[in-house]
Structures
1.
Amino acid sequence: MQIFDLEKQGLRALNEQLHAQSTDTNQTSWEVINAKGSHSIAVGLDAPIAVTVKGSTGYYCGGMNKQATINVHGSVGPGAGENMMSGTIIVDGDASQYAGATGHGGLLVVKGNASSRCGISMKGIDIVVHGNIGHMSAFMAQSGNLVVLGDAGDALGDSCYEAHLFVRGKVKSLGADCEQKEMRAEHIAILKDLLERADANAKPEEFTRYGSARNLYNFDVDNAAAY
Amino acid sequence: MCGIVGLFLKDTSLEPQLGTMLTDMLITMTDRGPDSAGIAIYGEEVAQTTKLTVQSANADRDFASLEADLSRAVDTPVSLSRKATHSVIHAPSAKANQIRQALRELRPDMRIMSTGDVMEIYKEVGLPEDVATRFDIRKMSGTHGIGHTRMATESAITTMGAHPFSTGPDQCLVHNGSLSNHNNLRRKLRREGIHIETENDTEVGAAYLSWKMQTGSSLGEALESSLEDLDGFFTFVVGTKDGFGVVRDPIACKPAVMAETDQYVAFGSEYRALVNLPNIENARVWEPEPATVYFWSH
């Protein structure tokens, strides 16, 4: 286990050391202490390493992540896991605005609540929020799955494309061109897998699925298999 | 960007440290706005005494004989405590209006930053650390306070464009964001007879709240109606004689995080501003909801 004191050693040194890890590194386990709300912790990683952050972080924690597993023992500021490609980020506390924005892949788990614009423009990432999400979440969401065990705020899924949105609780309002969808066996299977991986205690059957009504973009039914 | 910090103390034993705590919080937010900085501190009340904080671009000239000139003009002894470009005039409350009038005649170039029983406002161009040092903010005690560091977007970098803005006796406002209907609203408020000095958008926000309260709204009602009448982005933090409040626009893209313990309620544009507060590990930490007015008072 490599222990890194962020206050003493600085952010640039941390990210340089983490970036220096390759696929076959021996230093697979890292712990970052004294996070104190710092920005850009563990951004741009590309190795199968595990990073534990003690304390809450600022902006963009785990942004652009590939392969790595990042566990934050605290809350995260705006843009956590922004544009992540693969790997896993687990936030024990809450997430601020636009968690998982534009994410292409991987799994982002928020054990508390996520704020506004969660999963905005998501492009393949899976996001599981144990609590509630704020307004304008999944705005223009293109692909991937957003799973919410609690409630969703205003304008869920506004102008969304083909992302799957699953909400167990209440939805304050749906955004433009977002509608309730039928829950089919394939969706139950997706949910079951994600809930297990996110250590979430909920049954897939308790959720309602939402998605695009496909009136706002040039959806062509002949291409349905591609979505 | 812009950075806001606010601290409302519940535990009176922390009051001597208010200036230091608020200064440290504001310095942490320096990279959110390097243009100007300001702090409003709510200090001790002296019975039947009003504080007027004044500012001068030519402080040596304007402050030199001000105490004697004012005392003579209002026929009552007033006292002056100077800090760099600012001075706080302590005068009998009954004479407050006369003092304002006398100041306009004696020192027409001088600006009145704030009036009230307890509030003092200090603001200047420069970094938070420099501004706080200049006005010796660390030594100030108080019940609550608000700080702001500005990244100018809507108007020039000047002392008068710095925050906090006074909205009335013992009331102030700081803002992160930008208002898009401030020109129209400024014209409307000027027609209503409200004095607005600068082209700054936040000053219009402050004047709007003042006008609402002058026409019968409570602060809470004024903040509620700001959600209807102000167009643009805003996270506002307001201070009053015995409390402080927070409101964010319905889109809420300007950041805000709050923390509450038995000892205090704290506001920061980022969590970083709060990390050195006592017992923050066990505080309730949350993001204020959009279009929701929060208020705490003693």
Note: Chain A has a mean pLDDT of 96.
2.
Amino acid sequence: MDPRAFLRTAPEPTLPPPPGATGFFALWRARLFADATTGVLTVLGLALIVWAAPILFRFLILDAVWTAPDGKACAAPGAGACWAYVWRKFPFFMYGSYPVEHRWRVDVTLLAGAALIVWLLWRGAPRKGLAAFLFFAVYPVAAFFLLRGAEFLGLPVVSTDLWGGVLVTLIMALAGIVFSLPFGVLLALGRRSRLPVVRAFSVGFIEIMRGVPMITVLFMANLMLPLFVPPALSPDRLLRPLVGVALFASAYMAEVIRGGLQAMPKGQFEGAMALGLTYPQRMRLVILPQVLTIVIPGIVNTFIGLFKDTTLVAIVGIFDFLRTVETARLDPEWAGPTIATTGYVFAALFYFVFCFGMSRYSLGVETSLQKGRTR
Amino acid sequence: MTKRAALAAFAALGLSVSSAAAGPTIDAVKKRGQLVCGVNPGVAGFGLPDDKGQYTGFDVDFCRAIAAAVFNDPTKVRYVALSAKDRFTALQSGEIDVLSRNTTWTQSREVGQGFLFGAVTYYDGQGFMVRKKLNVGSALELSGASVCVQQGTTTELNLADYFRSHDMKYEPVVFATADEGIKSYDTGRCDAFTSDMSQLYAERTKLGQPDDHVILPEVISKEPLGPVVRQGDDQWFNLVKWTHYAMVTAEELGVTQKNVDDKLKAPNPETKRLLGTEGNFGEGLGLTADWAYRIVKHVGNYGEIFEKNLGEGSRLKIKRGINALWTKNGLQYAPPIR
């Protein structure tokens, strides 16, 4: 008898799953009613949806006023969301008080910015280096001259008091994002530096910025600064909080990146040293690419936080997007019980679209960069 | 502690330096070619950007009146939207020339903080709104009522004082914001809603059925609102003050935006002095003789501005009340121009 007779020569045929474990119902039963707790939560969740969805649907869609010349139709009893009001105030939400005849300048700036961002972020797009150069070096200067105006270009100056709405929110967010990442990297490296002065500066900066609320920074910029410097030298009312927001975000960014540096195995540093690379080369070629990959979720988290924090500048009298919504709802022409709610729903949608977009994009980048590490 | 003291010292130094450095404001304004006016970023009727983002309102028209007097062009104004917190810093530091932002004239603001209030452009005060069907004609009939009020404001304190001094019972229902308060009032959570009069009219437009509510005539507190300037520049102070008086005088004399050109030929000596066809009353203010003519021509008289922004010409429909001319049982009174 063959001594290997007890060994299988072919795999056993797969048994069918037990009855009731497959199919549409089984699948959803396992997901929604796996045990008692899950079951109760599912029922409660469904009840909430059944209760809330029709109310929302009625208010936002069915009873909503889509077109109206003024607020009378929206103030009628039983009227839902007043989209006519959002439509009417939309230019104000977009541009604030930017002069009507010059609003094309804002459009051009924002479209160019959007195009460059898509170019930069679209994986697989050609000539990224050029895109980066245009976005980080050329675009800010061009945008500044286009938005603010320059007499030698034949564009009248539009003072920044008139800027507002989505324009200001995006400027705040973009400047914060573009500035905080590189500056945060430098601060994080500085904090781990062996040079005491550099280290002390970085630690001091980060701790002071993180140790105070953002509102304090904004108040300091807009209330204290004008008292110390003469009005002629005092920076622009928009620039002050802009710098404040950017510095504030940098401190948080630095800590996120330091977390990534901390997570690097020591061997990476030593290996790079053993290859004879200089400090900048080690950082640029070996350490930072890995660090930044690890901390993408943290970076994007900071960006999203920063984007929403820009609403705080309203406190120092800057008309950001949320502030324009807040202001427009006071218009007596449109006053009515649903105006405030409609405005806030619109604002929520706006912020959600941007934040969710950032979050999804980062998830995509993460998955593609993590391919080598997936186990 | 020492740090704080040092900071305070710095702040004081900064204050004194900048206020000393602010020279005659009128020269600076003329040189700049623009008036810089601090306004409210959002109070219906007083200062609010319209659909195009242009500032409109009662306080805004006051800025336009100054610009009209100085430049003969009401559009030469740069508006700086200021929150309640940073309005005084902006004025103190010289960032704005005049603050026209429904600011209440109080003793401590003039004496303690180094400001001057030009005039009272709007006599505000706390009032009550109730449902018509309650059949209440006076605040004195509100005994036992529940009253919606904003928390932590002087409004809340005034309310308590008023009811205590009239020996009436009431039940305060407090809310963090005026918005919540008016919503609750609308749903019937309380019998009355209290706030400053100007605010009551604006809040009323937000109700489901604005016409079912009435604002009671009693004014239980004093909130005189007016333009504010820095101390130390008397000429500029006079200019701001007399801009208001010129508008009031114009109303008194029946000079309106429409008929101002005809009134130039009017024989009335008061009208002649106002419009500059006799004497030169603008000179002392650093202006031309036709300064008041310019104001009325470009912006209008006091009554016109009131009606356009707050009264029948707007959706607020605020009654003139104590803001009527002194000849009509109001408080608006201008010293003579002579």
Note: DSSP finds 15 helices and no strands in chain A.
